[in-house]
Amino acid sequence: APSIVQEDFLSLKDYSTDEIMDLLNLAIELKKPENKYLPLLKGKVLGMIFEKSSTRTRVSFEAGMLQLGGNAMFLSSQDTQIGRGETIPDTGRVLSGYLDGLMIRTFHQSVVQELADFSSIPVINGLTDDFHPCQVLADLMTVLEHFGTLKGKKMAYIGDGNNMANSLMIGAAKVGMDISVASPAAYAPTAKMVALAKDIAQYTGSKIEITESPEQAVAGSDVVYTDVWASMGQEQETIERLQHFQGFQVNEELVKHANEDYIFMHCLPAHREEEVTTAILEGPHSVIFQEAENRLHAQKAVLVALMGDK
Ligand code: CP
Ligand code: NVA
């Protein structure tokens, strides 16, 4: 078992480099076919609160819990009393009496924090407007599998400076990867998030760069990463965002600036011919389905670390 001292998994910023590497190594162990059904969480139940849609997060957490000998429960905010205004503190205290862990996907990071503050069981962030740590753990696992190392590798993130960019900056900084984020000026990561990543990078030697030039970001990169231009909750901004992100598409022209053996990554779901072309998504450098599968393995590691017998 990894030596994780954390009670929750709310953001990678709370985890040390060693804790993250422990989780990645455990994920790689759990991915081995002979370890697929190890009953490390026999009889334990995870509740999963969703205030936004999901395919990967929901199915990988649910399958992961079953493979570990436990169970998972899908709790749509629509169909629980949360949708009728029952507070997060009350919900957290009630559910702590039934469950062994809680995953939540919601809008504000403060809601995840509040749930963790009031729950006596581990809370896992399944995506907020600010962070997506489960995705980045799977992403780092994918980079590690592909290149055999993380330290010194360079990631280029092209697109919106929100949850994925924030978590990738923090994750990269923690493990000693360099990251260059290219966004239109109005969509750059906030100064607060950049400062947070740079603070971490001081200790690991990572380089964090923010630019408005996709070509500059991609130059010399080992990983080219992108995400949708309009995230969940921003659907009404789709048209204006399509305009503002012109020139930020990942396509054959842009990846000419990457290293020859670069990999293309995307958290998915993808909007083809918007943030990325089909040729790149389906091309020989794309690892998007390995990356998606790794959500399962990385999250099983988190579940075992937080909910397993200590
Ligand atoms: N990447 C990701 O979190 O996908 P879902 O929205 O389908 O869970
Ligand atoms: N930025 C996207 C990620 C989806 C996994 C969103 O928040 O909708």
UniProtKB/TrEMBL annotation:
Tagged with keyword Transmembrane helix: no
Residue ranges occupied by any Aspartate/ornithine carbamoyltransferase Asp/Orn-binding domain in the UniProt entry: 151-305
Domain Aspartate/ornithine carbamoyltransferase carbamoyl-P binding span(s) in chain numbering: 8-145
Subcellular location(s) of the protein: Cytoplasm
UniProt superkingdom: Bacteria
Binding site for carbamoyl phosphate: S54, T55, R56, T57, Q81, R105, H132, P133, C134, Q135, C267, L268, R295
InterPro entries per the UniProt record, alphabetical: Asp/Orn_carbamoyltranf_P-bd, Asp/Orn_carbamoylTrfase, Asp/Orn_carbamoylTrfase_sf, Asp_carbamoyltransf_Asp/Orn-bd, Orn/put_carbamltrans, OTCase_ArgI
Entry's Gene Ontology molecular function annotations: ornithine carbamoyltransferase activity
Pathway listed: Amino-acid biosynthesis; L-arginine biosynthesis; L-arginine from L-ornithine and carbamoyl phosphate: step 1/3
Family classification: Belongs to the aspartate/ornithine carbamoyltransferase superfamily. OTCase family.
Protein name per the record: Ornithine carbamoyltransferase
Annotated organism of origin: Planococcus wigleyi
